Amino acid sequence: MPLEVGGQYTNSDVSYSGYNTAGIDALNAANRESRICRYPLKRIESGSDYLMIKVVKYEPPGLNILSGLTETKNEAGDVTDIVNAKDNSAIAGESFNANIGSIPANQRLDLKKLKYLVYLPIPQSVTDNTSVTWGEDSLDPLAAFGLSFGGEAIQSPVKAVEKYFNLAKEKLGEMFTDESTKKAVIAALAGQAYSNLGNVSATGVVARATGQILNPNMELLFDGVSLRSFVFTYDMVARSKKEGDEIKKIIKIFKRSMAARSNAKSDANSGVFISSPDVFQLEYRKGNASHPFLNKFLPMALTNFDVNYTGSNTYATYYDGTPVHINMTLTFQELNPIYFEDYEALDKNGDTSVGY
After folding, report:
1. Residue 233 reports pLDDT greater than 70
2. Does residue 253 fall inside a structural domain?
């Protein structure tokens, strides 16, 4: 049987006085109140800090790629241009757009697709982590020499190989003045030639033959970007009937906003695709303005949402069934990596915070 704590609620009215309500006009006036919620219900003063979460309809970035391309060649058979077969327009190197696309930058501020507004306290742990990927890479002298004819090999493999050996005879001959170097190069070439026979490598053959290895020219090179994740944990205790209803509404908003849409309808073509869930724009705020110090966020997806209705490890409810102690954990991940240009945009807008 649940532990009922009847009569422990206190009376409190819902009031959004003091909250930033920019963009609320974009919501349907008829149900605007049901689309704005907060915890706790106490008034936010001009100096209060809080987290504002906007739930926005996902807008796909689009896929801007070229199709139907053909080549134009001269009398010698060399490719002179690439044209769009649809309208025969030239695709010059300067105008070629290889940008597949990303979440539109204006979606970060566009409130036309705003669906919900949720106001929560600043969490007890406020952190941000920015990382990029760097990896070790090596390029030995023989491999570098081979790269010098790699592009030509695509156009004319036979001519490229012939040219390679002619150059190798000339250039490598200069290296053969030193006997140890000569032995090392011959061993390396032998190792590359017989590498398909099994566990034979040029490096291993050189080491066995001469006690040396080819200079790997090891270097740490930029390898890619990463997406940031954020975890927010809240302990929620309803102090009134209205605050209990508000907590219930907040939980339901997060659950329904992170759910995909099956598009199941009565017509025969329904259900072929499922649509993306909503996305979230988070912002730390102080009173009616952006927080002057804390980090900012790019649009994010809610990837995990955990609710523990027995936050005190005991099942206890008020007289209406509302749990006394609820623990809520939200895990967000940004839709795009952070780029240098994002910081430049903040600087142009006079931002004084630590950035993203």
Report:
1. yes
2. yes
